[in-house]
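Justification of computing resources. Each target in the renewal requires a structure prediction run like the one illustrated here; the chain below, 230 residues long, is used simply to show the kind of job we budget for.
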Amino acid sequence: MSCSDIPVRRVGPKGSQIWQTFLGNQIKGIWASTDRGRAQACTADYSGVNLGGLILGPGVYCHTTAPTLTGTLTLNGSGIYIFLIGTTAAPTTLVTAASSRVILIGGAQPCQVFWRVTSSATIATSTTFIGTIMANIAISMQTGATLNGRALARTAAVTLDTNRIIQPSGFGYGVPTYVAPPAGTPLPATLEVPAERIGVVPWLFLIAIGSGVAVVALGISSRRRRRRSV
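Resulting structure tokens:
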């Protein structure tokens, strides 16, 4: 299974019935794909282990009890990473500590990482997480958490709070093309001046100056008259 094996495309407006049906089918499809991973022997069993501080290569990582992530988990090398958390008979959660991180090295890509959670997932405050999270119930992204991947909750809500979610390349999406900023000043010299008034503006300016001079002259003349009358 590679980044192009499970394409994602937009069908209908978000929130519509056709979009919800399509998204539900996508979750089922990815869930089925990770089922194939479950059929394989586990590369390692990290049940109840803190994933922080580990450096892992591609493989299937099993967790019959809830794992934790405190610190930094490093994924090294291009290939598929499947984290199977809990079982149907004994569902469990994925909860990270605040400010935890998942980082990729050696050619690993966000679209190659899958987290199958049989209960709910909580990505704690200021955590930087990577991969597709597929929770059987709900996903909660707490304040300031960042996800380079996707958050897919099967039966409940995905809750966001001042988060950043980055759509990774792959799955039908390319890397966004860089657009250079304009050279020189980006503001036009005639900003806020209607085109039909451009040629008139200098005359209006001179008229305004003349009006100001006239007001000052009248004020001086008025003061002189008052002094004479006194």
